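Below is a filled-in request sheet from our internal design queue. Each sheet records the structural input a requester submitted and the sequence that came back. We keep these sheets so that new team members can see what a complete request looks like end to end.

REQUESTER: design group, bay 2
PRIORITY: normal
MODE: inverse folding
CHAIN LENGTH: 310
BACKBONE (tokenized):
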């Protein structure tokens, strides 16, 4: 129950006499950083004008509406309150003066975010333990959203160009040497939290091969029409017959538009069977056959052959 002749300030719990004049609010200086990994921050305070020189004032600091600090107000026009504790996440800091049990209004809030969580580096490609057989590869992964990311080639000391998306996904194009390619990955978020990781990407010597066989190399015009067969032999990086490689045949006549045929390899073989070549003067000349094979790993192989009609 409140005492006679007093009122209870619900925000501060102090008793205030009727008619008492509350002191004005101090001002807080904007912090040097809006986000920090530190557990505390020094808060700059500006003493308000119009205070009674004969009155004693208390300075109260609040973080997220919780009273965290109380001290006698210094006489200096500006001063700092050191090591004000921060909570993880957003912190709204306000200040007020109190005199003879009367607390004045709160200051305008200053905002500081505390982030002490170390960002994580996750590499998604190339997958750990896999061997890369191409001279180039894309390093892909993810770190904390908004964090900076650097990738350094430890063998040359070169920092590689890295693209980082706002959500933390990053990509670095790599030029790989045969053997181990050592990389240092570093990330740092806006609060200054940092992390690093060392990885090694192994490039193996590829035994991938694409061969192309045509059922004819030279054709007299008198033998047209002719059923031409094209067979591609596809081997993977280990030199084994490749299943499931996408194979695209292209046939470019000397005097007509290019024709294509797409299939997949089975047990290392793919073919464009029994393509009929028609007769006529437009058939005379050199025909170009191109085959492009894309292995399941993404490796691309190409081979060209030609035949002539005379």
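RETURNED SEQUENCE:
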């Amino acid at each position: 129950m409140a005492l006679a002749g007093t009122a209870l300030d619900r925000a501060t719990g102090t008793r205030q006499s009727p008619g008492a004049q509350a002191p004005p609010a101090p001002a807080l200086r904007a912090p040097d950083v809006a986000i920090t990994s530190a557990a505390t921050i020094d808060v700059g305070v500006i003493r308000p004008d119009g205070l009674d020189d004969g009155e004693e004032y208390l300075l109260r600091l609040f973080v997220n509406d919780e009273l965290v600090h109380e001290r006698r107000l210094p006489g200096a026009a500006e001063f700092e309150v050191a090591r004000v504790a921060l909570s993880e996440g957003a912190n709204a800091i306000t200040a007020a003066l109190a005199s003879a049990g009367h607390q004045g209004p709160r200051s305008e809030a200053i905002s500081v975010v505390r982030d002490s969580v170390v960002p994580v580096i996750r590499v998604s490609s190339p997958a750990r333990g896999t061997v890369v057989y191409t001279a180039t590869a894309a390093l892909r992964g993810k770190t904390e959203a908004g964090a900076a990311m650097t990738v350094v080639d430890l063998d040359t000391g070169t920092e590689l160009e890295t693209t980082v998306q706002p959500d933390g996904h990053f990509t670095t194009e790599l030029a790989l040497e045969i053997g181990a390619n050592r990389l240092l990955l570093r990330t740092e978020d806006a609060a200054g939290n940092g992390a690093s990781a060392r990885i090694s990407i192994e490039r193996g010597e590829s035994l991938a091969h694409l061969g192309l066989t045509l059922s004819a190399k030279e054709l007299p015009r008198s033998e047209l029409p002719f059923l031409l067969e094209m067979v591609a032999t596809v081997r993977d990086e280990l030199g084994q017959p490749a299943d499931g490689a996408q194979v695209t045949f292209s046939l470019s006549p000397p005097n007509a538009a290019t024709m294509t045929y797409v299939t997949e390899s089975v047990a290392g073989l793919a073919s464009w069977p029994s393509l009929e070549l028609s007769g006529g003067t437009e058939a005379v000349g050199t025909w170009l056959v191109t085959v492009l094979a894309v292995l399941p790993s993404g490796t691309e192989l190409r081979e060209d052959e030609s035949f002539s009609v005379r």
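SHEET NOTES:
- The chain has no helices and 28 strands.
- The chain has three domains: 7-114, 122-203, 209-309.
FILED BY: M.R.
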